Amino acid sequence: FTMDCLQTSLIREGRVFLRNRLSGAKIDIETREDDTMKLDLSLQGLVVEELNATAWPQMLSTSSDVVAVTFGFRTFNASSPSYAGHDMSLDLKMASVRFVYAQRLIEEIVNYFGAFSKIQEIIAMAAKGVVNATSEIVK
Predict the structure, then answer these.
(1) pLDDT tens digit string along 10-28?
(2) pLDDT tens, 53-82?
(3) Cα 86–88–94 angle (5° rounding)?
(4) Which residues of 90-103 are buried (b: 16+ CB within 10 A; e: fewer)?
(5) Burial bucket for residue 59 (CB in 10 Å: 0-12, 13-18, 19+)
């Protein structure tokens, strides 16, 4: 699986305030006849930018000339001639990341996602009310 670019935006009051961009993602999964598996993931770039910022719009970014993240997972079979002496291995490499911390933006993101939990609470209360009303009608 390969993905050139995935971009998501957080919208508040009809305006995008935060944009996330993942680029150059690759996922390779290989299952072998000896019941082993190989999983490789890589991500070329990652950018999180605040669209309303004046001083530092890029909250999180990686250098575009190196792979931002590589992840490898392998399983091994003890009966295989190529057994490595352990059942599995995990390899993770990450390039340098630039992170600009802005308290106001963090609070905006927390409030943004906090609204979803409040909506879930309202829906749960409404569903409970419907169940109670229905049970009263059935009696």
Answers:
(1) 888 888 888 999 889 999 9
(2) 767 788 888 876 778 889 999 998 888 877
(3) 125
(4) eeeeebeeeebeee
(5) buried
For the chain, state the CA radius of gyration.
23
Strand ranges for 32-95 from DSSP E: 37-50, 58-62, 69-75, 88-94
pTM of the model: 0.58
- pLDDT value at 104 more than 80: no
The whole-angstrom distance between residue 6's C-alpha and the CA centroid of its chain comes to 11
Length of the chain, in residues: 139
Q: Compute the distance between CA of residue 21 and CA of residue 46 in angstroms, rounded to an integer.
A: 6
Residues 6 or more apart in contact with residue 111 via CB below 8 angstroms: none
Give Cβ neighbours of residue 69 (< 8 Å, ≥ 6 apart). Answer: 41, 42, 43, 46, 92, 93, 94, 95
Two tokens, residue 94:
């990450």
Question: Residue 137: its pLDDT value, please?
Answer: 64
